[in-house]
Design goal:
There is one protein chain. The chain is mostly helical. Helix content is about 60%, strand content about 0%. Helix 2 (about 40-60) packs antiparallel against helix 3 (about 70-95).
Length: about 210
């Protein structure tokens, strides 16, 4: 019964929309170009980017609907990812037309808890899609395989004399060998000078 009412309301909406268009009360909705490269003005590119963002917002709200069956959740999540790719194309076109680079200045995509939207190889999961069979296991596997970041205390414990370069000579045998040769040469010079001093002293005493 409820399904029939939804169909009737949908048909009534489409009828009234068509009637408004025929009477000139509304302008026909302009279709978004399939390719961003077909748009030649920055204003139009900005407009279609905003249009894609509105569609993304609606779809993200829809994927949180508790009444959606699993198949529709997957379809809506796929649609969101398709729209995200379209948004990227429009942002690339905006840069080509001399506009701002939204990839650099735009905010990261966050979920309702303020965390970055999780994904795998560029594919993002939103709302109830994160709880689909296989998806949660994927995130858990990624979390366990991801190396744990060292805390500040652990990093401080790793600092020793080598960190400040006091033990660099231990890693360079050439430096040690060079230092040994220089030392031997300096000792020979000092001995030669000392011997020469003794010889001069003996000569003075003989005279």
């Amino acid at each position: 019964m409820a399904r029939n009412q939804e169909k009737a309301q949908s048909m009534l909406y489409r009828f009234r929309e068509a009637q408004s268009l025929e009477m000139g009360l509304r302008k026909p909705k302009e279709r978004r170009p399939h390719l961003a490269s077909l748009v030649d003005t920055l204003d139009d590119a900005e407009k279609w980017r905003r249009d894609v963002i509105r569609d993304i917002t609606r779809s993200v709200s829809k994927v949180h609907d508790l009444s959606l069956p699993e198949a529709q959740i997957r379809d809506v999540n796929d649609e969101i990812n398709r729209l995200l790719r379209a948004k990227t194309h429009w942002e690339d076109r905006i840069v080509e037309l001399g506009g701002p680079d939204y990839k650099k200045i735009g905010p990261k995509m966050l979920d309702h808890q303020g965390r970055e939207v999780p994904g795998n190889r560029g594919y993002k999961y939103f709302g109830r899609a994160k709880d689909l069979p296989g998806v949660r296991e994927l995130f858990e596997e990624q979390a366990t395989s991801r190396p744990k970041k060292a805390t500040k205390a652990e990093l401080l414990r790793r600092i020793d004399a080598a960190y400040f370069g006091y033990c660099d000579e231990n890693d360079d045998g050439e430096l040690l060998e060079y230092e040994r040769k220089v030392t031997e040469k300096r000792i020979k010079q000092l001995r030669s000078a000392h011997d020469a001093t003794l010889e001069d002293s003996d000569a003075d005493s003989d005279s």
